[in-house]
Amino acid sequence: MATTSKQYKAIGEDLWKSRTDKINSELFALTYGALVVQLIQDYEDYAEVNKQLEKMGYNIGTRLIEDFLARSSLGRCSDFREVGEVVAKVGFKSFLNITPTVTHSGPPPPSSRPTSTAQQSGVPGSSFILTLDENPLAEFVELPDEALEGGLWFSNVLCGVLRGALEMVQMQVQVEFLSDVLRGDESTEIRVALLKYLEEEVPVGDD
Q: Across 108-181, where does the E strand assignment appear?
């Protein structure tokens, strides 16, 4: 029987409650903020800082996924819609203690022939948007005009984490911020789009 949205939420809450290696949220936010400031000083280019944050997040995501799968005991998702539910209600909850709202969309139809939502949600072009009502990384943060004009995405590490984690489970995705309250937007939104499913690599020597 398919796991429901409410069940995923319960799994995420249980994982967060059982996590023993929690870090103080204020310390976490301040440490991340110091990292971003250091990158800005090192590169003096906000576009490059965005790239470096995404790259760092990617490396984190490729490692976090192992812990996530081991602790959650979740199997393979049936389609990309389910991926969005798991990311929002289990992934974000278990690591950051937040539950973004997830909005799904399928790929543009290739023709006028009707296609079911279930079929659409598992093919390249499918996507979901995560709306963060709160962002632990951005507590105590107010971006200066220079950073706003330079196009800094302060929490871009999250995009990298999602890309790295999903790549480890054979999904190549494009992840980007659409908006951020730190930049004066009404909401903070991250879009995750499925590009393609990756072939599982067979170790050398195995048939």
A: 127-132, 171-179
Element (H, E) at 194: strand 188-197
Q: What is the pLDDT of residues 6-54, one digit of tens each?
A: 776 666 566 546 665 556 678 888 999 999 999 999 999 999 999 999 9
- The single residue listed with the structure tokens 């949600």 is 121
Closest CA to 111 of 102, 121, 103, 120: 120
Cβ neighbours for 120, distance < 8 A, ≥ 6 positions apart: 106, 107, 109, 126
Helices (H), 21-45: 25-43
- Burial zone of 13 (CB within 10 Å; 0-12 exposed, 13-18 middle, 19+ buried): middle
Residue 80 and residue 121 in contact, taking contact as beta carbons nearer than 8 Å: yes
